[in-house]
Amino acid sequence: MARLDIKADDALLVVDVQNDFCAGGALAVPDGDAVVPLINALAPLFPVVVATQDWHTPGHASFASTHSRDPFETIDLHYGQQVLWPDHCVRDTSGAALHPELVLPDAQMILRKGHHAGVDSYSAFQEADRLTPTGLAGYLRERGIARIFVAGLATDFCVAWTALDGRAAGFEVVVVEDACRAIDLEGSLDRAWREMGDAGVLRKDTEALLAPA
Ligand code: VGL
Ligand code: ZN
After folding, report:
1. Residues by chain with Cβ below 5 Å of ion ligand 2
2. 189-211 confidence digits (pLDDT tens)
3. What does the CA dihedral 51, 102, 120, 201 come to, rounded to 10 degrees?
4. Quick check: 120 pLDDT over 70?
5. Which of 60, 153, 155 to mutate to test the pocket of ligand 1 (most atoms within 8 A of CB)?
6. Residue 164, CB-side half-sphere exposure with 13 Å CA sphere
């Protein structure tokens, strides 16, 4: 297989590899822990590594409990449709911590998102109101980044929204498929890949980055 060479203007975004999305967590993604060794192998290749943390207030608008509803129902909030989740990644709890086996000594930025009580943020670039930027696009541009590689959890939510918004912000985007795992709620994974494909997001496996030159 031809190797995809990492360049000085590439960044790796490690999305939400947090305890609550891994085995035993409040919103465990099936096989979520499996992304950790792959991300640990990828990270040293990149000149810029950014990790994100889903970082919600207690009583966050994305929590089913806040609305006295059941998890995985959908409701309309002031900014549009919102899937309701079990309480997860409450700021400063062990569930919100990065996975203990994630080894990212070279990560230069940790971005927390979803921290406003009334608005969710699957995307690392923009909150779900589609108005409030996180500042990530500006950070990456100032660092001279042209292409981002996205890995982490979950493929069909935070990874996909981050990849799509990365394209909208003008970056080339590659999702490292085998370094992601999905929730897959009512066809969300197929839909996410379709939307990412339509937006010009490339889909690669770790092997393409690690293969001998
Ligand atoms: C995520 C659902 C709720 C994710 C975050 O990281 O994909 N999914 N909050
Ligand atoms: Zn969340």
Report:
1. 54
2. 999 999 999 999 999 999 999 98
3. 60
4. yes
5. 153
6. 21
Q: Are 152 and 144 in contact (CB under 8 A)?
A: no
Mutate to test the pocket of ligand 1, among 29, 85, 90 (most ligand atoms within 8 A of CB): 85
Q: Which amino acid is at 196?
A: M
Q: How far is CA 1 from CA 10, 207, 210, 212, in A?
A: 20, 8, 10, 9
- The interface predicted TM-score of the complex, written ipTM, equals 0.99
